[in-house]
């Protein structure tokens, strides 16, 4: 579905540059849980890249438009990344080397007819039960980072390999310190969850922090 953000997908280059931070390894498996009250929002591990899955019914404010854009969808995934790497493959060593440098960003919006835990398996997903106020704040954060066109709708800049995968211009810029994973952690924190984006670069950090938050808000799956 996605190729991930520029920093995390180019670990060999970054390691050579000395950018592999000690705190980014060995975070352990995320927690699969059953939501206890509220709406189940999904933190999804896509390898080196994390995304947020929001049930269509919980999309509000600036994100409510996706109910019309994706009729029949059950969950919508939101991911962040550098425009050049998200929407077009790198074709030279030079492009890989400049990947971590600042540049325009995009938000990928991907519609699903199922839930992420069923699509990717519980080991790749943390379920976060959120209140209506929290999902509203999450929608406001994500929607607030979507650049608007003249019609007031999110500005579409590219279509992915499948029609249910769309790329929209982001207001914020991608930097080494504002990556796809930092954006996801920031979104969860702005929603009101106990998830900090401080020092976040890699997916494992986000999944570990999400798992800790989930442990406080839901109980493990089981009989």
Task: Summarize this entry quickly.
This protein has helices at residues 11-16, 65-69, 83-87, 93-97, 116-120, 132-144, 180-191, 203-217; strands at 33-35, 39-45, 50-55, 75-82, 103-112, 125-130, 156-159, 165-174, 218-220.
Q: Could you name the key traits of this structure?
A:
single chain, 223 residues, alpha+beta, 8 helices, 9 strands
Rg over C-alpha atoms, rounded to the nearest angstrom:
17 Å
Class based on secondary structure composition and strand pairing: alpha+beta
CA(first)-CA(last) distance = 33 Å
Low-pLDDT residue intervals, each spanning 5 or more residues = 7-32, 90-99
Which geometry do the CA atoms define? globular
- Total beta strands: 9
Report strand order across the widest sheet: 6-2-3-4-5-8-7
Oligomer: single chain
Counting structural domains, the number is 1
The H-and-E topology, N to C, reads as: HEEEHEHHEHEHEEHHE
Q: Beta-sheet strand percentage? A: 25-35%
Protein name: DUF2459 domain-containing protein
Keywords: Signal
Signal peptide: 1-25
Organism: Gluconacetobacter dulcium
